[in-house]
Design goal:
By secondary structure, the chain is of the alpha+beta class.
Length: 485
């Protein structure tokens, strides 16, 4: 019977959904079974089916309907709970979003700033505590995978706040790609002639920390210790140094273990420097032996680059958020120069990222989280001093749920200073449009052009922006863009 075959097919499809099926998929499948069983009941009744057959089909229909109804109720309840949670999150994030204010080294409750120290550490100042705020140093979370965004490398940084709470930042940087270098035994002429090993010289410096790697150095913060195995005189750990695979060997000092400490750009091996500049006191004496001394080292990505991104502080009880954005240079990247003598136009295209909150207690939209977007700047160097010498657009928004948003933010016209500064568009300098409806001009944006090319045109643009959408929306972000050729 055709109706009986349809029921069997529907039940088979339900069984094949698997554990990863969503409630909505299961509800739909049960509805299909219910309909197939209903059709079978009618077919049996019309064609003289036995009472037992009709009863079995009726029971199958009722069971499927019950399961579908239960799932439908669960979906509705989950949606209500999710909406309530989003409303609460949106309200807290709306209250906590603000434009970038001052610098990380400033003090006071008003500070909302982030950036790099001269030594390369990344720090955030959220204005806490209010009477003597100070920057908090964040460490890179090497376990977190942050996808690159429009060609700029992504990284995540975290820290715990004194007295509870957490800091989190997502940073995008135009870091150069690694390239092959010299042979290991040419790059490092201090290999021991007998053992083929070398001390890890100056292991407390950033230039060496970033060269140290091993899957066993897997902590995201603090120190990890290694003890000697039975009948071993040294700890042996496979890994790589300067991109060349091999083994690390550590001889612990008396009454100590071998220690590896997380650093801003990698790992520090051991404690304080001894006579041969390997690290021994409190953390063991470390040496490295390449598997192939003729292997080419991998030159690390450059340590001088432009970065942008967002950060957020969350209190220990989860009731307070503070969030903003930043743009800064790590190492040394020159500002643009002599732009007053430059003529012509240039377009810069790249990415943007930040935090947003749409908060309504009257039935409007509640949506909050982080976003990524496209950033475009149009610069006219012939009219540097004009109020519209540079304009910008942030569009192609992707929200916290990974779905597109029909938004755009206009960065209104501003002059360009001789050294590339864009700092005059600070009064109602942005317009946020949602679904084709623009809000009143609000907020501010600032920027900087970097690194003149051979033709005098700056190669990189970066900046930060803050915008509002009436009384219901706040958005803060930053951007980094490369000269479009």
């Amino acid at each position: 019977m055709q109706a009986e075959t349809a029921l069997m097919n529907a039940e088979t499809a339900l069984e094949m959904l698997g554990a990863s099926a969503t409630d909505a998929q299961r509800e739909s499948a049960y509805r299909t079974v219910q309909q197939a069983a209903d059709n079978l009941v009618m077919a049996l009744q019309a064609n003289g089916g036995t009472a037992a057959e009709v009863e079995a089909a009726t029971t199958a229909r009722q069971n499927a309907m019950n399961m579908a109804d239960n799932l439908a109720q669960k979906i509705e309840d989950d949606a209500m709970a999710a909406n309530a949670a989003m409303m609460a999150t949106a309200a807290k994030l709306y209250a906590g979003i603000s434009a970038a204010i001052s610098s990380p080294s400033s003090t006071g409750a008003f500070v909302r700033a982030a950036g790099y120290t001269a030594g390369g550490d990344f720090r955030v100042n959220a204005g806490l505590p209010a009477d003597a705020s100070a920057p908090v140093t964040l460490s890179q979370d090497k376990e977190a995978m942050v996808a690159s965004h429009r060609g700029w490398e992504g990284m995540k940084f975290t820290a715990s706040a004194t007295g509870g709470g957490t800091y989190e930042a997502v940073v995008y940087s135009n870091v150069g790609e690694p390239t092959p270098g010299a042979k290991f035994n040419v790059q490092y002429t201090d290999l021991d002639a007998t053992t083929g090993e070398r001390p890890i010289n100056n292991a407390g410096t950033a230039a060496v920390q970033e060269l140290v790697a091993s899957s066993r150095f897997d902590q995201s913060a603090g120190t990890k210790e290694f003890e000697l195995g039975t009948n071993l005189q040294r700890v042996i750990i496979s890994g790589s140094f300067h991109g060349v695979s091999g083994n690390y060997y550590c001889t612990p000092a008396a009454s100590s273990t071998c220690a590896v400490q997380v650093a801003a750009d990698g790992f520090t091996l051991g404690g304080t420097a001894d006579a041969d500049n390997s690290f021994s006191a409190g953390g063991g004496t470390w040496r490295f032996k390449p598997s192939d001394p003729n292997a080419l080292v991998t030159e690390m990505p450059d340590t001088n680059y432009v970065s942008y991104g967002w950060w957020i502080y969350k209190s220990a009880d989860g009731n307070e958020f503070r969030a903003s954005a930043f743009e800064d240079v790590k190492g040394s990247v020159p500002n643009a120069r002599n732009l007053n003598a430059l003529n012509g136009t240039a377009t810069y295209v790249g990415g943007a990222a930040g935090k947003y909150a749409l908060s309504s207690s009257t039935g409007g939209t509640n949506d909050a989280g982080h976003f990524t977007a496209r950033a475009t700047l149009e610069a006219n160097f012939t009219t540097n001093t004009a109020t519209n010498a540079v304009t910008g657009t942030i569009d192609n928004f992707i929200g916290a749920d990974g779905e597109a948003r029909d938004w755009s933010v206009e960065l209104k016209g501003s002059p360009i200073r001789d050294t590339g500064q864009i700092i005059d568009a600070t009064s109602n300098g942005t317009v946020w449009t949602i679904g084709g409806t623009a809000a009143a001009a609000s907020g501010e944006w600032v920027g900087q052009l970097y690194d003149n090319g051979d033709d005098g045109v700056p190669k990189v643009a970066a900046g930060k922006f803050y915008s509002t959408y009436g009384q219901d929306g706040k958005l803060v972000g930053a951007f980094g863009a490369n000269l479009e050729k």
